[in-house]
Amino acid sequence: MQRAILGVNIEPVDNARAKELGLKNVEGVFISRVSPSGGADEGGLRAGDVIVNINNAKIRTMPELQEQTGRYRPGNIVTVQFYRNGKLQETKVTLRNKNNSLAMAATHTDDMLLELGFELRDLLPSEERRAKVKGVKVISIYRGSKIERTAMDPDYIITKVNDVRVTSVDEAIEQLKKAKGRVLLEGYYENYPGEYYYTFAK
Fold first, then answer.
1. DSSP SS3 for 108
2. How far apart are CA 102 and CA 96, in angstroms?
3. Residue 158: what are its φ and ψ, rounded to 5°?
4. Is the pTM value of this prediction over 0.85?
5. In angstroms, rounded to a whole number, what is the distance separating the alpha carbons of residues 82 and 64?
6. Distance between CA 21 and CA 49 in Å, rounded?
7. pLDDT per position as a tens digit, 2-43
8. CB 35 within 8 A of CB 45
9. Rounded CA gap, 33 and 30, in Å?
10. Measured CA distances, 14 to 30, 57, 87, 88 (Å)
11. Please, are residues 54 and 80 in contact by the beta-carbon 8 Å criterion?
12. Which 3 state secondary structure label does DSSP give 146?
């Protein structure tokens, strides 16, 4: 079983730190470092923030934070309330595992996808912001599958299935199930310019 982590280094909040940060109460967990490209980083948390609540559970101490995140799995999304510059703010964080991966919890392995030979997940909010185009991301491709024979690479982001725009894995699966005969996928790779097209027969 994989443990979920926020992707932060934490320290306790004592009287001196609470006073320094302008907090009314001595509670919460101080973020001393944020792991680059981790869940907290993608969610906009920064060093110096103080986490006080996760999914409506109050966080007063470091063990409480660890206990709360331990209830979830990599790929789960949690709502984090935190103080920054004395103001209470809120963000959503997609939890990762210790390898900074979303693991299986965020991927979909519908029978249709297994038959075609790939795993998909919805885009993270940060990926959507960078791309400005919604779609679904290919996480892995099975050897010897129909998808592998198209020469597609993992991290391909599918935006259309047979000219129908898809913004979630559920929509992509729905269109793949509707498709008859040849299927045309349209999309892009984040670090390569231009559109990429792949086609295969169902």
1. strand
2. 5
3. -85, 125
4. no
5. 15
6. 9
7. 677 898 999 999 999 999 998 988 999 999 999 887 889 989
8. no
9. 9
10. 10, 20, 18, 18
11. yes
12. helix
